[in-house]
GDP/GTP exchange factor Sec2 N-terminal domain-containing protein
Amino acid sequence: MELQESASDGALGSTLTTCNLYDGKARNHSVNNINLSSHTSLANGDRVAELEYELERAYETIAIQKAKNSRLTHMQNVVDSEVQELTEKLFQEAYKMVNAAEERREKSEKLLIESRLKVDMLSAEVEVLKSVVKAPTQKASFSHVFMNSSSKTTPLRRVTGRAFKVAEETSASNSQTTHDIEIDPIYYREFAEWREDGMKLDFTSPFLARIIAEEVKPCLTFDNELLATSVITSIMNNTLELEPSHEKKTSVRTCALTNVQRHCPYKLRVSPDSDWVCITLLCRNRIASVCDFYTYVRYMNLGIVKTGLNDSYWDVIHHRRNMTLAKCGLGYGSKTNSGFSSVSE
């Protein structure tokens, strides 16, 4: 029994010893686990802090980049707007230059055409004036026949006849009747005084004022009084333009001067800035006869027509006769049969 108890005590002791050993190991393992856990926790805290620091740095970097991007975007927008504005200005200037060049080209072409017309007109006038200067009273285109050339101081004797032949032919054949044509002393005196005063284009002088009142204004009296007044003014200022309408077949339309429905084969304008208006042949003949007179007076003022007192007087009478004929619608015979200084045909 004792031996069994001893054995039992020994087994119990060994068992307790074994249990104690296991308890110690377990405590040691727990302590080690606790220490390891604490070390791990510390390491994880440092890593989290480090990551948080890096995240903050990343946020700061991103904020800096955003600010830089905002500044660059603003600068780009400013540059783009300036480039766009500059481009628009350049295109506007280019358009202005092109338009100005086109206007200058059109104006140059217009001036070229007008200058060519004036050159043609003046060339024709020069040729006619040469014939007038050489033989101002020897041609049948006058409405009278020249005076007896034996003396400049002898009374004027005019010869009229069929086809207005020259006086030598009439004297040689003795087949035509001669008539004494008297000179109006008032007209002649006023004309002589005007010549002695330098042939100035003073329309208030007795000579010119009388012709304007007795021939010019009655000849240019139309229903359209405003346009008629503008026509007289433009003739005096040498700005009137008169030319054919260049229509293959003239249509019936309202004449700008008479306000009557007629064929209007001619057109006129009182200045280069005004509009063209259509007129009838009657109006054209009236205006042309007045222009003929003013052209002759201008040539006398410029010294182009070099004739004596008597010859130039009868030339003026011829133009007064033409204005009277044109006023009555009987047509007229132009002395020059060419363009006028103020009329373009």
